[in-house]
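Checklist before submission:
- one chain only
- standard amino acids only
- sequence pasted in full

Submission:
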Amino acid sequence: MDQIVETTAGKVLGVVDEQIVSFRTIPYAAATSGMNRFLPPCPPAAWSGLRDCTSFTGHSPQAGLAPVPIPDLADFSGAPDASPETEDCLTVNIWTPAADPAARRPVMVWFHGGAFAYGNANAPRLRGTRLARRNDVVVVSVNQRLNIFGHLDLSAFGGEAFRHSGNAGTLDMIAALEWVRDNIVAFGGDPGNVTIFGESGGGGKVSTLLAMPRAAGLFHRAIIQSGAAVRLRTRERALALTECVRQHLGSSAATIDALQTVSVEQLLAAIGPAQQALGPSPTLLFDRYPFGPVVDGDLLPAHPFDPTAPDVSADIPLIIGDMKDETANFLAVDERVWHRTLTEQQMREKVASIAGTQTDRVLDLYSRLYGHLNPAERLIAITTDSNFRIRSLVLAQRRAAKNRAPVWMYSFDWETPVLGGRLKAPHAMDVPFTFNTLDLTNATGGSREAQALSDTMSSVWATFARNGTPRHASIPDWPAYDARTRATLILDKVCRIENDPRGEGRRLWQDITGTL
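Returned file contents:
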């Protein structure tokens, strides 16, 4: 059955899917090619007649940037989005129980992962039908500019018109939320009750929005899944990276006009060499995105959560957490880790690249805590704590210190049995749990306990979106996080509350990073 809704730019056609009205790739801004490249988003041109929004039509250019998984993991997360890459990518997808303007349902706006470099909002595992139907909410997912297209800082090269070019993709997020504010009532949503949520790079996007004065009032709750962004790019590093891009492109980057007409393929091909020429950040464990938002003193006045949490969003309730074994799938590309043949010496060499002079201290603690694990599994534990968990813990601690809106901390501990259980609870496995789309992936082997946990997680998230608190019958009473108890919800076969789980590891990495 077709469904028609009037937006500020024209009428859109959707379709009923799994008893939910679905609209795919509605433009919230104009195409970003040609003279619009690297500039802030412009409103979409109005159209007459009916715009067909029954299928996905594209996503941001990113060819060659996503990590290539080992063959065993190729279909772990399910089918990818098959739509083409295009600079006409500023679109939203919407799933609603009914396009009834009187309904005023809670709105949940998803920002996809991919380190601001790749990914999209169209993949099957992000289908919003189940989350919307089971919980009577409106689900929105956002496509935006990524990598060099969204974050090439031309402020020192292109003049006033390009002063926000390093944050063009960041401004896309604002434009999407403004579109939701202006249009979501017609889709049955409440613009006064909007939750932003995202995983990995999507969590980084949520972190960024929490620090942006221009985003104030556009959302009312936030959820960060495995993607806390404590720090972002400095203007100095952003401009240095731009110079590396220009040197790589040569005459193709001689003028702004040249950069706006150079091919998509040439720009994508410049990313790797430019990043390599720039080199790593001096604050490696906290600076995450070579091509990502820029702390410019204007759109982003300061780092999101360094040295403190931002006041602009201190009254927004927040859920934040991680997977127990975040790096298991990243490290799987090393056959020695995947097949558990990594030696103690090889583990030491890998840890030394992270811990430096603190290597012995790190190895001693993890040997004592996890002596029953082999070196590959201990490496997963060490890199999870140092590369993911420390950021979430620091963010939560600094946010709780504001003593305004509550923050709730969780840890996703359920381990998948697939592939011999070697992945444990890896990065991004929680995404289909969030959307209740486990059957559209190969992540759980059809486990009944996994489906039960998905029902719980998605319902708790939706309850938080509705009420601003995650109280739900399927979990124990979940206290807010503070530096005294550090209460944490453990999402597992049986959900439970633990105070300061894995506390020795937390204290070690907070001491090493100077964030105690």
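Reviewer check: The CA atoms of residues 106 and 193 lie 5 Å apart.
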